[in-house]
Amino acid sequence: MRTFCEWIHHPGMVLPLEHYVSGPALAKRSCVAHDDKSWIAHGIAPEEKLAQIRAYDARAACWLDLCLVFGARLKETIMLRPHLAERDGQMLLTADFRTRNCETYLELKRGTKGGRLRWVPIDTPAKRTALEGAKSFVRSETGHLGDPMKSLAQNIRRLKYVCEKLGITKADLGITAHGLRHQYAAERYEKFSGTPAPVRGGEPVAREIDRQARLLVADELGHSRGNITGAYLGGILKHRATGRTAPHMVTDAISVAPTNETPEEARHSASASEIPGMGVPPAAGI
Fold first, then answer.
1. Strands 86-88 and 118-121
2. pTM score, two decimals?
């Protein structure tokens, strides 16, 4: 509306949002999560709840299981072709420099926002079990996980009905199907950074560790920006030096003993260390 008003040369026609609400706080929008929206944070064990759903509707349980172990969106799981979606990791390393070295990946494109292609590593037994279970629901290698007798909209409605039937709503148990995606994001962040996500009370970590962990989580969730993970993980905490390092995320550092070098000599030594064959070689990965 403001853009339209600028087009007709009346930029002040639409007042600031605070003018239309009772309190200024109501006009502030925050994209950072303050509460953990995962199932486990609400006292719901996903495996137990999925077993209950499986007894009522096995296909719906399969969709939700994929949301839990791969962080996929509901629409992505329904449209997934489980046989064709499994990709050899070695074939992907040359296609996407951000892809980590894993034997197999799940390719997600159908049903993604904007058709954004991504690969999620199949790096846990739970992921392998969920994918193999999904394959049993399709009649051929080209089949998708939706009920072939229903349209996409009907399949989505079926899933929503099952969730409502078994209490997976904000009004009932305080959870939603999307909460499984939040749970995946928090668990992956902890794996990459070595500490729980801020929304789960995790300790601050070095800024670079946090940044890299968020980028990896964002990539697996299908986002291109690391800051979007604030909606899943919480805000960035100010780092306090604790001496901790995160697994698989921090490169080896070089310890330099105190010397009596002058500032000019120190600068010369630092420059020499960057030249092959001179001084101390730079640390791996830097």
1. unpaired
2. 0.72
